[in-house]
Amino acid sequence: MLLLLIVLFAVASAISLTEEEEQEMRLEEKIRNAIWTPLIENTRDELSRLDKSTEQFSAHATCGFSVHTDLSDYETAKQKCENSSWIGFPTPGGRKLASLHSEMENKIATLMFQYAYGGEELEGTRYEGASNWAWIGLEKVKKTEARPEGAAKLVWMQEDWEWTDGTTLDHTSYGNWMTRRSSDEQIQPDMLKVEDDYQTAATIFRKVLEGDSSGVWDDKVKSALHPYICKFNVPVHYIVFPELKTWHEAKSDCERRGFYFAKIRNKAENDLLVEAVKTVYDDHRYDKKFHHENWVWIGATDLKDSGEFEFYDGEPIKFSIPWAKNQHDNKKTKEQGSQDYAAVSRWGEWDDSYGNDWNRPYACQCNPHGVAINKEMEEANAAWEIEVLRKDEVKKRLSDEKENERRKRKQEKAYKKAAKKAEKAERKQNKATKKAERKEEKAAKKKAKKDQKAAKKNAKKEQKAAKINSKKEQKAAKKNAKKEQKAAKKNAKKEQKAAKKDEKKEKKAAEKDTKEELKADNKDEKKEQKAAKKDEKKEKKAAKKVEKEELKADNKDEKKEQKAAKKDEKKEWKAAKKEVKQDKQSAKKDAKAEKKSAKSNRKASKKGGKKDRNENKKDAVNESPEWTPLDESKNIELEVDRLGADPPFFPGQV
Questions:
Q1: In the chain, how many domains are there?
Q2: Of 69, 163, 223, 300, whose CB has the highest number of CB atoms within 10 Å?
Q3: What angle do CA 235, 62, 296 make, to 5 degrees?
């Protein structure tokens, strides 16, 4: 379209214009202004931005061209363009002396040339200053010798001239050779002979002549020194820097170099980034998939809305992102925060990562507007979106199948659960029925048992009543018999009582006499014993006092011996007491036996008459030994005196 406009403009200027033609020319001018204004602004913006990277190399650059101010001859300029791919940033596709195939490219070259020297102001006259002209990549490659021999200039034929990119001029080629203003007749190249050489290489003029939109061309001898303009074989879009930086450091460094942090707006650009990565890294990858040098930071983040990635300046991402498997997962840790920053792998997959903590290579972008999409790229983008839709459909279908399967399993589970519940309810009902039956059976058994028990109870009552009546009768008979026996016994007892009373009186009188005698003897004896005991106690007390004083001086072993001795003494004392007690018991037994035998004798004598009983009674009294109560305390005291030890203490003893 642009080429057509330029041709139309050239034709229109060569002929007389009608009113309609003038209107058309004005329209074309408007169109040209619509094209040139943004072109000028973009070119100047790129030059000023990229000066941050290129100025130190005596160069100024856009994303597709570079202009160099170090004066060089044609061949040297050509070599410098081709031999260096670094001008403050890499130009991966290489460079050549500029081939200009359109008015737009010629305009860009002119603008850059003017920028490098601060404008259109020339150095001296048109042909005096070396900086007024810059080499471009067009030269005469055929018929470079004069015909006839010694001629002042070479023959002009378009096909003899060739651009550095290999294209040859023909009648369709763009050209901006200098023309005569009055007739618009092309006057360059004239290929004049200068000293020993001919003018066979093209230069571009820095100043824009009246009526032109860009610098005109002229031919020069190759040995002349001029600035030169290079053209990138592949326009720079993405530039990958292998230095490892965090996401924020990468963004700052892109801006410091005059670039933008890389944006990927479609699948074609994603593929371009992969190609840019290959210019820095070979095909070798680290075995660990998420090794930091396998991934390159780009300018996308989901800081604003978690899970929704957009470019760092808020521009939305409008294509289907080729996420890596199981990504983006937006992992979070206390130390590293959340994965809010995008990186692209060397093979083109995306991942969300910890931008504040992880150091990775990064990609910058030269042209902020993205690459011009050609038909091939458009088809690739469409194919990618179709493939994504297909995959999504497959994924959805599989997901739906999975969901249906899950629902089916859930339904089957619900059916099984319901069946199980019904079965459980049935079992419960059967259990309840059986329980009710058992309860009824138990109640029937209980009732039968109760009736049986009642019948037994009634039978027992009748038996008991019969027994009671029988017992009453027996009791009455026994009572009558007892009454008779009692009356007989009463009479016998009265007689025995009277006999006993007389016997007791006599015995009591005899016992009283005996007791009084014994009492008198015991009293005297006790007084003597008491006095002797008192003296013994005093002596013992004194002896004890002395013994205690001596015992205090003795050692523990003697105390133990005394303690053992005391223990033995206690045992002996207890044994003596036991013997006394046994003697006392045996004496009591003997007395009791004698008493019993006397009683039996008395009973026998009763039968023989009162006289015989009295005589037998007297004999029994005379024959029975006198019983004397033992004074236990006296015996104990005597035994203690014999053993020579303190009497033992018994509980309750005062």
A1: 3
A2: 300
A3: 60
